[in-house]
């Protein structure tokens, strides 16, 4: 076998040439999936058929990733012909994944489409990463990077089983809201822990007459800070309650029988997606040393987002008259906490 002598290098270069072509083809597919829009299609859309086809293409892609990785993990050196066949099979599998994604019409909802697109791009990106790892790895050896890249493709392909498959866009929106709620819960719990742990460590020491202060106030909240924090926490709790209630009515009353209903659900998901980053920004500004004006601005941004969510909920099909009470209550809670924050920070303006 000549793979260990000088003659191996040209052979190796030739054998891997199809992988370079494959990498270029996969990058082109990735760009199209990221930027392109699915068509509406002439035939009636069949959702169960779509999910079956998507699951099958992801499964085949996972298998092709395994074959490709194994072929470049041990001697003998893969021939140029075998490499070309492997590359063609991988490209066919990825094109099938992209093709099935394009079956999903825009009319089924932007939230559902975004979730499927994200899953599709993750698979294509994983395969590009695996191809690049093999191209840069030593000959006839299975590197740790190649193992990780192969596992990354498997994991990306398995994500298809976690995609929401309920009533079209309704299940996708419920899934998106649940994810937002999880992030907000975590932020709230973290801030509650910080408040318990962040007591003034010098509270039992009299102020130093010469220095005029106790210890390092960059590490704890003043009494004025804590008054402001209480209302900020009220706003964060309102965020959690808002997402929990909206998720409940989407699950109970959400429909995707008409374009109007699908669009209303998408609007809810879009605005609810703004809650968790707004909560995070507020929480970060609440840590000492606190800039009260920054806290006020971040609180105002969160309050504005929450009121938009509540307004969109109230005017959509997911909010029958029996649900209007909590919408009104939470709107009042947001206003109450925001007014207190304004009062506490009036001197900062």
Automatic annotation (TrEMBL):
Pfam families reported in the protein's UniProt record: GCIP_C, GCIP_N
Location of the protein in the cell: Cytoplasm; Nucleus
Domain Cyclin-D1-binding protein 1-like C-terminal: 207-311
Cytoplasm is among the record's keywords: yes
Coiled coil: none
Cyclin-D1-binding protein 1-like N-terminal domain segment(s): 54-195
Gene Ontology CC annotation, any one: nucleus
Domain of life of the source: Eukaryota
InterPro entries recorded: GCIP-like, GCIP-like_N, GCIP_C
UniProt entry keywords in alphabetical sequence: Cell cycle, Cytoplasm, Nucleus
Family: Belongs to the CCNDBP1 family.
Name of this protein: CCDB1 protein
Protein's organism: Balaeniceps rex (Shoebill)
Upper taxonomic lineage: Eukaryota, Metazoa, Chordata, Craniata, Vertebrata
């Amino acid at each position: 076998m000549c793979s260990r002598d000088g003659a191996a290098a040209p052979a190796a270069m030739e054998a891997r040439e199809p992988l370079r072509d494959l990498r270029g083809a996969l990058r082109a597919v990735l760009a199209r999936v990221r930027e392109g829009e699915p068509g509406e299609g002439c035939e009636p859309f069949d959702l169960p058929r779509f999910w079956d086809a998507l699951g099958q293409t992801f499964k085949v892609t996972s298998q092709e990733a395994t074959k490709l990785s194994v072929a470049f993990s041990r001697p003998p050196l893969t021939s140029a012909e075998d490499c070309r066949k492997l590359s063609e099979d991988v490209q066919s599998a990825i094109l099938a994944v992209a093709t099935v994604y394009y079956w999903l019409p825009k009319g089924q909802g932007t939230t559902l489409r975004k979730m499927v697109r994200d899953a599709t791009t993750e698979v294509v990106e994983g395969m590009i990463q695996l191809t690049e790892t093999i191209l840069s790895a030593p000959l006839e050896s299975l590197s740790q990077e190649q193992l990780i890249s192969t596992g990354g493709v498997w994991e990306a392909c398995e994500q298809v089983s976690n995609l929401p498959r309920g009533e079209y866009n309704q299940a996708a929106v419920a899934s998106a809201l649940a994810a937002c709620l999880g992030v907000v819960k975590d932020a709230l719990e973290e801030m509650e822990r910080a408040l318990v742990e962040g007591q003034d460590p010098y509270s039992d020491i009299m102020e130093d007459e010469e220095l005029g202060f106790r210890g390092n106030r960059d590490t704890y909240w003043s009494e004025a800070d804590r008054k402001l924090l209480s209302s900020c926490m009220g706003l964060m709790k309102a965020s959690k309650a808002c997402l929990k209630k909206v998720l409940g009515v989407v699950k109970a009353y959400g429909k995707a029988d008409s374009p109007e209903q699908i669009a209303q659900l998408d609007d809810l998901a879009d605005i609810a997606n703004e809650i968790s980053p707004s909560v995070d920004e507020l929480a970060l500004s609440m840590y000492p040393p606190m800039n009260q004006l920054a806290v006020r601005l971040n609180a105002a941004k969160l309050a504005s987002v929450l009121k938009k969510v509540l307004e969109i909920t109230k005017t959509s099909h997911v909010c029958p008259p029996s649900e209007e009470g909590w919408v009104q209550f939470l709107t009042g809670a947001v206003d109450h906490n925001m007014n207190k924050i304004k009062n506490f920070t009036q001197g900062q303006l």
